[in-house]
Amino acid sequence: MRLSDLAISSIERLAPSNSTILELGSGFGTEILLNKGYELISIEQNKDWQFKHHDNYIAAPLKKYKDYWWFDSDYLAQIKNLSYDFLLIDGPTGDPIPEFDNCRIGILDNLHFFNLSLPILVDDINRKDEKVIFNKLSEGRKSEDFNDFGLIY
Fold first, then answer.
1. Is the Cβ–Cβ distance between 48 and 57 less than 8 Å?
2. pLDDT digit string (tens) for 68-120?
3. Can you give the three-state secondary structure of 68-114, one letter per residue?
4. pTM exceeds cut of 0.90
5. CA distance 46 to 57
6. Beta 143-145 vs 120-123: how paired, if at all?
């Protein structure tokens, strides 16, 4: 799957082209956003997607934490020093191992890596864990729930 057209237009509404987007998970939407003039920094665990659309990737494997998998935090320390204008949460993905299915929930234990004062899009909030992430990050902020993705600003 890729980001919906409505998700893309919602990003455009909140971040002008030439803005820098930090995206968790790279995919077909990455190329669309690049073609619309955005700069992207992509965090990706899947070697098939790393460096596929641009050369500004953080290649971070998944690591087991408590009862979930998430990006290995040893690879994420550099995020604190990055400048970006928008946070896009669309990864990591669970493929190809079913045990990875709840891998996005790990962001909640790793929020200290991210600038949460910026606009945020959480994709796939029609799923239980992504909805939990959206609800938590929405606390005290304006947000919009579009059923399959949510915006926080």
1. no
2. 889 999 999 989 899 999 999 998 976 556 655 678 999 999 999 999 999 99
3. EEEECHHHCHHHHHCCCCEEEECCCCCCCCHHHHHHHHHHHHCHHHC
4. yes
5. 11
6. unpaired
